[in-house]
Amino acid sequence: MKTSVLYNPDTRSTHNMLGRIRIFRMTQGHKSKKRDPYQPEMPPVRINREIVPSHFQVTLNTDGSAIHNRWENTTTGIGVWYTDRSRQNIVLKLPTQVNEHTSNSRAELGAILEALRQNEIDDLIIELDLLSSLKAICKDSTRYKDLNWNGIQNADLLKCILIKLRTRPAQMEFKWVKGHNGENYRNERADALADTRREQELTMRTSNKERADGHPALQDRARLQALDTKHTYSKLIKWHTEKKKKPPILHQEVLDEEKDKVQDVTRLCPTNEKLLKGICVLKIPPWIRDHMRNMLTRRIKCGTFWNKIPEHTGKAQCSFCKKAQNIEILETEQHMWLECTQSGQAQVWEMTKKTWNKTSDREWPHITLGLIRGSAALTFKKGLTRTLKGYEF
Questions:
Q1: C-alpha angle 202/82/108, rounded to 5°?
Q2: pTM for the full model?
Q3: Closest CA to 290 of 304, 305, 300
């Protein structure tokens, strides 16, 4: 297995004439009134000759550390290690992006980018223990570029890394090493640096998306032969809607309440996507699935909803309590799931608690309406990943 790759900054295409056709460029169309017909195309990328390489070889190790991967309360740190007590060592906290899932892969890419920002004149050898990051930079980046980065995770960091690699005058070599086995001291030190900065306030500097997209090193855009129907359609939709102002998320306060309840039980804060899409994969009857989805968006037709409709105000009261005790109690979601003594919900919860105690070693959680709404995103992890060591649920 080849573990070392010398990066080649050459961006010239090896395809035939038909394979070189590119679409979704940033330049205006030939019929646009805003475009100067005599304006030349953007020049191709060139190595920055203003920087004089030192021809001195430097070996460093990069690593990223993330806890609660791909959850909303993820904390991530990056570490770049040269030598012990070196002033060049980098320890930073990686900020969480709104539309990007923070993970160990993203933290590793952030560490590589920060190392490239710091050193532009030396011949670098970067040792890393995450093979997916190495493949993304040295192999898969060509395919990502042909797809115009559509649907690619961590595209913002990968673009900035490619810009640095294609414009730096010094050589760049990546080397994969086996990590977390206690044998590689350099990798262990980089991992320790990343662990110490997860909770710090000193964060990594983010990049300007528009500046990265307009850089000559990334001007190729999508290659027509590499696109399929799915990528073309999704890119057209994104291209059409990216300049429109996104509407606010409805009932976000309800979702935030459910996130807090789930986090109190599992210490994992789910995203909106996990809450809404988690219901779709539950093996439950469709009518229960629809009821849970309506609970998330406050579309349950009960209680005060019927007071606004003439001739249906009687439906606002609980029919079980009215039939058994002849009393009128407003039928809210809280009453239906947790308070009604005539519907049988108390017996169901008691049976569920007994089953929980027989099949799980965890303590039975305090059931609230917010926890019921967010039950589709409940996940209990213990000892499955390195990032969750020491966390008991």
A1: 55
A2: 0.75
A3: 300
